[in-house]
Prior knowledge:
The chain has 384 residues and is mostly helical. The protein has 18 helices and two strands. The chain folds into three domains: 10-119, no CATH class; 141-265, no CATH class; 275-375, no CATH class. It has helices at residues 10-28, 33-46, 49-65, 67-83, 104-114, 116-123, 128-131, 145-151, 167-183, 195-207, 211-216, 225-234, 240-249, 256-265, 275-287, 294-308, 324-348, 352-364, and strands spanning 84-85, 88-89.
Amino acid sequence: MNPRxxxxxxxxxxxxxxxxxxxxQFWTGTLTRSEAAAKILSAAVDSGVxxxxxxxxxxxxxxxxxxxxxxxxxxxxxxxxxxGRAEHDGHLDPDRFADGKLSAAGWIGKVIGTMRTTRIxxxxxxxxxxxxxxxxxxxxxxxxxxxxxxxxxxxxxxESTRGLPATSATIRLVHASALHQLLxxxxxxxxxxxxxxxxxxxxxxESRPDSLRRVLAGELAGIEGSVxxxxxxxxxxxxxxxxxxxxxxxxxxxxIPRVLASAALRPLPxxxxxxxxxxxxxxxxxxxxxxxxxxxxxxxxxxxxxCQVEIHxxxxxxxxxxxxxxxxxxxxxxxxxxxxLRRASLQVGVDHLDLLSGLIALFIEPxxxxxxxxxxxxxxxxxx
Length: 384
């Protein structure tokens, strides 16, 4: 029997009846749509149905993180989806329950079961190569990606692996994306860091992986001032409550800052190894801006590709060291990128961080389980 299948209970029966009454009151005009929807959702929470559905879909995660913690996070997402926000209506329509044919408890369970975070965590319980289908993660030194998320550690992946390049970077993005959404954490700000600061912080992560957690916790003994400054810039857009919440959820075994920073600082993964994908991305960047800006935007795209994306060709199935020429080109692109972004953004009529966001998203959007919103400074995107 499928453990996630909907099975009616006394609580769900009471919720269904309550939703039927509220739906009829909406029909007759006694309640507005928003009032009826809010009462139905309140009944779902008060009756324990929402908590039951959270446990059904997040039982394994709750074993490590705590059921109350997971229920609170998922319920917050449920409220946003069901009731909406000021700029748009929610998806909970009281009218659908008025005739008693549709179960409100079943609807709550279906919504929680199909939430993006739920799907990510459910897919993470299978082998990693299936996790990113249709991408191929051919070798990963973790039994399942879910275990890596629960442990909060950065997976060790063979650097010379066949298939999708930057496999470890892809896994880091998946883990960090799930943690950002589940815990409601804001994005980090790697664009605040100079290249030297980024490199130093990456080295610190590799040599002393607990440094970031210690800095955020105020344990500064033995931490160099440059590291403290870089951590401050990386977490610059977080308020004290965000940092306090992160610190409360972090332990030496569950090092969330390390996972988030590793994803934010590493080069972006290529979506696939097919040559046509790069041409498609080039065309999207070129065709998504005014004709007068295509040349400089293309130059910015190539510089970004050189210095921020792991390169992999169709016939180069094993990653190799960069040649001296390629290294020099990458260094030159890294120095030229800031100026190119500013020139291109002036031509397009957006901020340079908007253009940077669009370029980052081009390489994250094809990943089926990573949300680019957590890895870009703004929401600006090239038209699809």
